[in-house]
Amino acid sequence: MMLEDQRPALRIDYLQKEPAVRWAALVNSPPDMDAFKAMCLALKKAYFSTFIARALCWLVYKLVYDHSGRYIACSDYLADATGLISRAQMAIMQRQYTWAHVAYNFIPGCTTSCVRSSEGWRMMRSLDWGNVPVMAPAVRAADYIDAQGVITHTAGVQGMVGVLTFSRPGLCGAINFAPKRHSLAPARFRSDPLFVLRDLIEDSRINTLETALDFIATQRFSSPVFISLCSDTSDNAAVVEIAHDGRQNVRYAQDGLLVQTNHFAQSSPFVRDNSKPYEFEPQEGWEHSNLLRNSFRRWDDLMATLRPLVGASASEVEAGCLQAYTVAPVWNHETIYWTLTNPAVGSLRLWGRQLPE
After folding, report:
1. Model confidence over 69-105: pLDDT tens digits?
2. Which of 46, 76, 177, 349 has the fewest CB atoms found within 10 Å of its own CB?
């Protein structure tokens, strides 16, 4: 079950130089800090329980992140604030997206849809991240606020230094996991895609589809990724497909609809990186199936379900999206949150997965 989160978003004054000031809203809120600590402790046990894992983590931090890591001051501060994990472990956790391309046993998913209603675009996204018992209780909205008081709404988990989902007046966007071929270099020591999206939202001049696409075209990513964007200012939506070798391809909405799951479109120059789709429903059922292999089914289902909603009222589109996202495999064993955004006004609604007690 999903429940809409009515809590006021945590405030992040990202222009403040001191991490303690940027993250004051989190650190000074006992319930939020408790949720953050619980997540850190659980992930520590999951990822760093062995001596080899801790040693490799320490080595990567000392050789790379401590010298040239992005947003490392924030990461170090949050590690110290928990008192539970090391700075090296926090640095790796902040880059889970990148390291997921190295650890083949951890494959996050995600499903994003952009639908043009009679009142403008709406973007619906599901974050399917794995570790549901750990991650779902830590889901949180955060508002990035600049010196002029301009707010960019985001959704993620407690203490996340990067950005997964955002909405500001004129533009909204979301990241989806992208597949890769088996490679000796499945990831690189470049900017994690979540950090690139944070860079984007911290530039208040980027509030149209065109300026966002221009910005992304200049970035160097650590791993393959899909970045979906829609803009009422530009009256269009697009997804940037970024391959594991850094090449990019832009796919635009067709007739008011854009869907992105976890595979490259058949027209993409990177289609060979896709996983093999299921031919039939797997024995474990769609809800519990592999997210890279069921990606094609999710895409087909949403294209068929959402196509009739194009041009309908905003309330009909929003209700239709919420209903469509309850059906497996769009709804699946790794779903931890939904967001529904309106780029015309920059709004963001957040639903979190409720776990049985």
Report:
1. 899 999 999 999 999 999 999 999 999 888 887 776 5
2. 46
